[in-house]
Amino acid sequence: MTPSEPSVFAWLGRAVHRHRGVVFLLTAGVLILAVLGILRGGQLSTGTIQGTEAAHAAELSRGISAASNDTTLAVIFHSDEWKTDDARFTQALEEVLGPVGKLPEVSAVVSPQGAPEQLASRLISSSGHDVLALVRLKGDEREAARAFPTVRRALTSDKLGVVVTGKVAFVEALDRLLEHDLLKAELISFPLALIVLLRVFRTLGAALLPIAVGGLAVMTGVSGVMLLAHVTDMAQYTINVVTLIGLGVAIDYSLFIVSRFRDELEHGATVEAAVVKTVDTAGRAVAFSGLAVAVGLSGLLFYPGSYLSAMGLGGAVVVAFAVLYSLTFLPALLSVLGPRVDWGRLPIPRFGESKGLWHRLAMWVMKHPWLVLLPTLTVLVAIGLPFQRLQLAATDITALPAETEARRGAEALKQLFPSQAATRILVTVQFPSGEAFTPERARALYATSRRLAKLPGVEGVESIVDLEPGISANRYAALAEEPSARPPEFDLALEAFTKGSIAVMQVLTPHAAASAEAREVVRAIRQERVVGDGRLLVGGQTAADVDGAAFIVGHSPHAVLFVMGLTYVVLFVLLRSVILPLKALLMNLLSIAGSFGALVWIFQEGHLSGLLAFEPRAIEPSLPILLFCALFGLSMDYEVLLLTRMREEWLRTHDNAHAVAEGLERTGGLITSAAAIMVAVFAAFSLAQAVVVKAMGVGMAIAVALDATLVRVLIVPAMMRLMGEFNWWAPAPLVRLLGGAHAPEDSRPEAPKQ
């Protein structure tokens, strides 16, 4: 394309200006569909990873009641006045559980009344004032989640205290917590972003436009996520992540567009010319930035069969709408407003502003590149070092606030009914065919159970061959051979622990599911797979953590290489340089590494836990790769803006030092403003109660702050000074293939008008 030829962006700007009424109608139609999508959206889940051993073990044992407690509610009944053997306690308990057992959503209720003596004794606390009832819900986890509110309303008593816990209760509490966190973050982030925008633009009209576009992008992105939940597994906090990314990029992109439009008007352009030029220049930067973010998020597609790939789709949807609204709806609004975009001018003083400040800073850095580079790199490396101590564990009930009913119930269960609260590691034994309980297989199951019981960290095993401590292997074999000799209780247990050729065991450990000790138990169980002519698989929450971490670690190299490789190609096409894209990749890695190290130091090791109000725990497995993919793209916002401006000056003057200094002068204020908005939005999410959302907000805020200060302002000029004219080198054949390079027709600054 020659300089005289109109670009596709100029054509788009002209079309938006001339057909702005159509743009408004189409936007309204999209919003109506978005509202319908939110109302008709699918159900979110806790997030799963398919294809792992833990997932296979759970699938094989599906339908075996002893295999999983995922759809079972643990209900603790308490009375300060009555003992559990008091007739009044028993009657009050029956008044609640009798109607609950008849609900269509409930498949079974187990309580001390009517349970076998050995089980009944485990359902009465040693305090004598508490009883545990197990309420199993029908269907899978999603069906149980839908049924939970109805069942919970039925589990009430005016005579006994009632506390409900279990995975279904945890999921429901986490869902409500995430909704509350999202609302609170939005209520805080929008005003914070508005304050920064008012500081940048000093007019109410210009400041409100990015806020409006951010709201539109988030609403449409959330709708996309809810619709995708019908066809794929969407983790609950995907909505929070999409809102976090959508708000940040939409407001930033709008900042670029509004800034350039005001600048064009100030230089005497007509409204139409200003719109066309804005979309052709700032719009081009927005498109490339959106492409960079999409490239980063596309790395999540390298985790097939997991909620991460679905999260990547959700993130890409909200970024696509942020770009779409920034290039269509926002220019159409600007076309209508024209000079009125500066409506509501505010008397905000220009603190710390000085013409040429960024130019002088860049020149000073380039005069002392090693003096700047070495200490700054040392600081970034020091911030990133704690990442070496990273530990991963999925979100569990400890992520809920202490006052949440499900969390209080879990603590009470651990204290009053330790055997029921113990961490359970699922062992699924798959035999080739036939019945799982035959004489030979009974002996094999017995031997395996006793072997597992002797492993360090194991306090017991529950299985069909562990019903009573005194029964021998020969006795179990005899029961397998003579079904008529079995007592009725044994047949009920056989149905609970076996189905066809599948038998299950539950290995109990006192260690928390996310602990290193529990993971060692999982690894120890997996050392010996053979059970007679069958083979065992290990599942449960701890095994899912082990497998999930291995899944993410195993797929991450391909995802990282893809994101970095494709980003390099995009930047090469944009910058026509071999070196600058490599430097950009290195800069991104530095800021992300600093963010990762800070996450481990803060959230895993507990520093600042008092200030940020959380309990230290291992990092959610998806968080590092999610942050990498999101931040790698977001960092390119500033990289594209800074380097394209430097390239303009290089093409015009072929003076490397001048190009670097002038590029920073022209974009430094805008990058700082955009970063301040990002940090404000992300910091609002640090106030969330859900630790995974809090960590996401803090991690992204730290990365953006590091990227816009130490990296872009100090390291970039220092490195570009050391590289000299080699920064701009590229093989001539490739440059000719891409259409050559020329100095831009307009090199006016893109900084916001003050």
Structure description:
It is found in: Cell membrane. It is a multi-pass membrane protein. This protein is of the alpha+beta class. The protein is 63% helix and 7% strand. Strands 5, 6, 7, 8, 9 and 10 form a 6-stranded antiparallel β-sheet that branches. Strands 2-3-1-4 form a 4-stranded antiparallel β-sheet, with helices on both faces. The chain has 27 helices and 10 strands. The protein has a domain at 1-40 and 203-345: Multidrug efflux transporter AcrB transmembrane fold (Up-down Bundle). Mean pLDDT is 85; it is low at 741-754. It has helices at 8-18, 20-39, 53-60, 87-101, 117-122, 141-154, 167-201, 204-228, 238-266, 271-298, 307-327, 329-337, 357-367, 369-384, 405-416, 418-421, 439-453, 473-481, 488-497, 516-525, 541-575, 579-604, 609-612, 622-653, 656-685, 691-723, 732-737, and strands spanning 72-78, 106-110, 130-137, 161-165, 423-430, 460-462, 498-499, 502-509, 530-531, 534-539. The chain is elongated, with a radius of gyration of 31 Å.
Helix content: 55-70%
Total count of helical runs of at least 4 residues:
27
Question: What's the count of strands?
Answer: 10
How far do the termini sit from each other? 34 Å
Shape-level CATH architecture of the domain at 1-40 and 203-345: Up-down Bundle
Strand content: 5-15%
**What's the Cα radius of gyration?**
31 Å
Q: What overall geometry do the principal axes of the alpha carbons give?
A: elongated
Class based on secondary structure composition and strand pairing = alpha+beta
Low-confidence stretches: 741-754
Annotated CATH topology of the domain at 1-40 and 203-345: Multidrug efflux transporter AcrB transmembrane fold
* Corresponding CATH superfamily of the domain at 1-40 and 203-345: Multidrug efflux transporter AcrB transmembrane domain
Average pLDDT, rounded to a whole number, is: 85
- CATH class of the domain at 1-40 and 203-345, anyone? Mainly Alpha
